[in-house]
Give the backbone structure.
Amino acid sequence: MDQYRVFGNPIKQSRSPFIHQFFAKETEQKINYESELVAIDSFDEKIIKFMGEQGKGANITVPFKEQALALCDQLSERARLAGAVNTLSFIDGVILGDNTDGLGLVQDLQRNNVHLKNSRILLLGAGGAAKGVILPLLDQHPQMIVIANRTVSKAESICKQFNLHENKSKLRAYGFDDVTDQNFDIIINATSASLNGKIPPISGQLVGADVVCYDMVYGKELTPFLKWAKNEGADHIIDGLGMLVGQAAESFAIWRGIKPEVESVITSLRKSLAAE
């Protein structure tokens, strides 16, 4: 049976084994997918060992996505521009790296009937989560993407990373305080604020009934960002559970050559969260 893993630290909370085993059953693929804790200083060793044991592929989560990129022999353009890898494939001793996070986000937005073409997108944060989704968002031909961050230079650095992309002119960098008087169709929270029970320091003036608010984080209840957006009048709020499942579906498709359906597993995970 083909072996797959998700490697991270911590890893106990990972829902990836549930998701991929669900996909395998749905698509009649015989695989074994497990989570594995990796010591901070032994990531490379763990990957090489797993590949030597005939492992077929692996998902990578925090804090190893940048280390995974450095370990790869070949990279997709998405992974190269993101500066991080979340999906490894092992083929004839060669390590291939990809980043499916952005595809997961785009497909979840589309699944929720959010139109990206010609839209004005505000992306909050300039860390790895933000970098990982920019190229797939640009490929949907938005009118513009504003990257807002507490430290403007970090947002500017991301824009420079994409200076060879055909849609590079659609990227803008601002501080959180500099976007108050602008209008957006979609606001995406790519900061870690919700994980800490906080919200990004942006004005409620940016939110309206027709502004889609998306948080890459998810939980049993609404995230702090989505609670705030709802209180500010947003009618369409979406958490990141669908993005999690979507990026997993893309990884599964890379490995197995078949794209699983996501609705059933999202519904199952929602029920599981509600029962916790």
The mean pLDDT is 94.
